[in-house]
Structures
1.
Amino acid sequence: MTTTPSPVAAPNTAPSPGAGPATVGIHAPGAMGTALARCLRAGGYEVATTAAGRSPATARRLADAGLPDAGSVDAVVAAAAVVISVVPPGLARDAAAELAAACRRTGARPLVVEANAVAPDTVTVIAADLPTALVDAAISGPPPDPGSAHPTRIFLAGERADEVAALVVPGVTWVGLGPTPGAASAAKMCTASVRKGFVGLLAQALVTAEHHDVLDAVLTDLRLDFPAAGAGPAAAAATKAWRFVDEMTAIADTQAGAGLTRELFDGFAQVYRDLATSEYGDRRPEDLPDAPDVGKLRPRRG
């Protein structure tokens, strides 16, 4: 949907047109959260976030991005009108509990944007436990970049979704899906099932092809229909496979809720569990070679 400028007036108030700079909270500043923070700052918004309780890598990422550390989750919710939760899917409920506790301690009531890759039923559970309003959101695509010619799409659903869509954020396109929470997460589960399912299939196929010494023939044939097929996408997925396991389980839950078998994506959860044990599972995406070795996608057992 097309957005128009509409910054937030003051902490814990909804965005309103022409009201001046806004503060938006990010919980927590991982790779995706930090990318969103950069885009928000490019749009003229203040960003409140903290590495408190997170890994040293998170603290370094925060410093490298030039983002000040608010010091605590309490400080983030007290400062921000909108707080975006963006954590690995397996941590979504814990992150929501942290936000809920911070709201109760401080009395702050920011609008919480649940932007994690979770099943719609999980959104319902999280919303019920929060003492403040929630907008269901789902990021479809890579971490956003304010200078990108192809903005990252973020699905939104909920009665107050328009307030989030009113934020003008370079590198982000908001896609409204109506007033029902869970719709955004359902859309994400569907798109992720195709994208990550394909990469999981690719990884399995390439490792199997190498085992049978037919890798070159398989790649030549696959590239007739899938020009980008190769070890690169599979190796990149391996570096994040540990977090994709929970996402595959969430997809299985979502498909089961639609009356379909969950076995397909429970199987993909195992595919990504295996990829996480591979040699590339120990690396960061930026540390991968230009031409990854298919043999290093093989699971390391025992």
2.
Amino acid sequence: MDTGLAFTKGHGTRNDFVLLDDPDGILDLDAATVVALADRRGGIGGDGVIRVVRTRAAGIDAPADAPEWFMDYRNADGSLAEMCGNGVRVFAAHLRAAGHVDTDAFEIWTRAGLRTVDILARPRQDGADWTVRVGMGAPALAENGRRLSIDGHELIAYDVDMGNPHAVAFLPEGVHLDQLDLTRRPGIAPDPEGGTNMEFVQQRGDHHVAMRVFERGVGETDSCGTGVAAVAVAAAHRAADGSGRPWTVEVPGGTLQVARRGEEVILTGPARLVADGVFRG
């Protein structure tokens, strides 16, 4: 890292990432480097680090017909993650802005498998939002008795797999989302091997919820795209809603829309590329 490491900084509803453009897979990206990049005081700062690399050069086991580009996502603590819904949108905006793809509809490869991308709108000026729609795959929901504990409340949780794990709990009447203490990891029992992301949800109206999230390997973040998708899946299940109507999900960093396309969950929201630079840490 003595010569510096070129990066792009981006975010989706204030879930922020450091992107490293490494088409030919020459970077040796170890956990310590990820932690240094993501450090908000001594580094660039981010909820995660995304290496932008061709699938064939990524050193992963992928099928021969996998898409050209692989989203190599790392949590801020250096651990590998299967998927990141906000990260996919930022990754897609970067691919288009950097000229790595020349169409607004394409596929990418992730550790959770194939994801489809549609860029619905490009920014009219630097620093403005892209609008990106992502096919997030089919969810798996289970009611297995898992419970989350926070501020003296014990809440039944839904397990929702969006390519990565989530435990989704709905707050009872009289418990306010903005009063929860998420400065430390909430209790969870049983605690799944490998951990999980934890979402706390409050109903706002018809097909409208708000959430906060404690992300595995990160802590509380302003948004989590796979968490938003998981919450919408759990909310529809809880309401016995088979209408197919989209759900609006508020997060501290903004608002996202979740719809269904057959069995697949579709996530739509903003992505913003805010800076380019060189890290000399």
3.
Amino acid sequence: MKAVVSINSGSSSIKFSLFAIGDHGDHGDFQLAAGGKIEKIGIAPALKASSVDGEILLERDWPDGTSLSHADLLENLFAWAADHPLAGREIIAIGHRVVHGGTEFAAPVLVDAALTDKLEALCPLAPLHQPHNLAAIRAIAQLQPNLPQVACFDTAFHHDKPALASRFALPRALHDQGIRRYGFHGLSYEYIARRLAEIDPVLASGRVIAAHLGNGASLCAMEAGHSIDTTMGFTALDGLMMGTRCGSLDPGVVLHLETQMGMSPAEVEELLYKKSGLLGVSGVSSDMRTLAASGVPAAEEAVALFAWRVGREAGALASSLGGLDGIVFTAGIGENDADMRSRICRRLAWLGLDLDELANAGDGPLISMPDSRVKAYVIPTDEERMIAMHTYKVVQGKSA
């Protein structure tokens, strides 16, 4: 049986999933067979893989201070896979989440040297993600040079949004040079659009806000399953408050930090990307669960601010859509934090959203009252499955 591997590579972790492909390669033919994670890269690396039923297939830890690169750790994974029964499935390609595709890449593409050079040039637009996405691609190219790799872009879903939604009020020449609003989390939103069409096709054909709420967070306004507007813009720093990222910020603050407080561009980047958001406001943690349990007033303020910012941005996106028919919560916070969903939904009551608190505390997926004018759903995202589907279609020469 053929299989595709999906890889999502970050600065200190690499998530991977193996999907077995059925006879037709349709949506339902992609069956998760195994998956795992390499984490704490650069600190105390740990590699774990398990089957879909929870059986531990591989578990390995390295001591604190072990200096192993992404390539080193992927080599360990490939060496294990070569001798494991899962190798009986023919791996025909590896698909990667690549955060930024710039203005050029509106669909998944096969990886070659020219492509990696173009994507390298986009690293300044996604400094937390793009370099590590490319590190995994290059590592696998060395380990398995004949194995096709496919780049799947987080910006692609938003590529065809209305032109006005891509513009900043800056000189046109800068827009033409690529300084524009791109949008991210596109693989997640594409998957949610497909799942919503299966669960509630009438709502999916209408005006929906998808809320991808995790350590990285954004909202997407969708009409008939297409991106109309989104909260992230030129970089994944924009929009909602996040775990360690500030989200939307008066640009005058950046000027003040540099010109009046003497901070260097590198120090400002560190502040806005890694020391702000939930962590910065609370002074406690970037993890919503830790904040909810802490009892520290500043932690509650951070949680309340997160809900306020989501409500504020959702109201703006409802305007972009000309109304609202539904909202879908997804990703770590969106799928698992009933209290945060409740806080957000209360802020959207003016749009006609009537939350069913009992349903919200349960398993979902529908968490709004039967007579609510705006429906609310909880739908788990699956970016890895979306990557696998795209990867298979590309290597087969088809469109997903």
4.
Amino acid sequence: MPEMMLVLLAGAGAGVLNAIGGGGKFVALPALIAVGLPPVTANASSTIALVPGAVVSASVYRREIIPLGGASTRALTAISMAGSSVGAGLMLALPAALFEAAVPWLLAFATLLLAFGGRLSRALSGALGRPVGMSSRAVLIGQFLLAIYGGYFGGAVGIMMLALWSVGLGLDAAVSNPMRVTQLAAIYVAATALLLITSDALGSPLILATMLVGAAVGGFGGAHLARRLPAWLLRGLLLTTAGTTTILYFLRS
């Protein structure tokens, strides 16, 4: 019972974090390892368990999604699902530890971009004499690469998406948060379709179901909370989450 309570609370916390700012997998993955799942199985299970929370959060945000750099939401979602499928296949073929060493540095870079991306974008616009903006093709290519990472390991991939859009498109993090949640759901759904067939995540159905329920409740509550927050406060929470997640990843490594 204490182990299941840990898994339930970790799932709820991960769902809330993913809805508000990202980094939910940092909560979910250690909890599953703590209750005895092998790291690769825990990685696959956490991805599967976070699907309902991500989908519920995306449904809450569905009326607030804006297109990115000329790329339609449908095209971006398709690219996210394709890249995630590739990443999930790599996760099954390669050890997760192969990529973990690079994650803290990627997160640190993404956090700095998220914090100063708007200023950097404006500075570049002033230097070039025209607005800085990624083409729709560049947006889709960048999203494909991030989705591969999302399907392979996935830790704080949402933070990395916000950082890319902040610099490349000059978008405020609070404005692009609904699209982040939607693409996170697409990445998790695509990876899950493969992992359910090829991984041994279903070998611990009670643990998986418990985290799944917690993540769904947390994702629903977190999305509704985020929608009611002022833009400046949501932006602050996003940066706080990004910075905290980065520090925790460095400590973990």
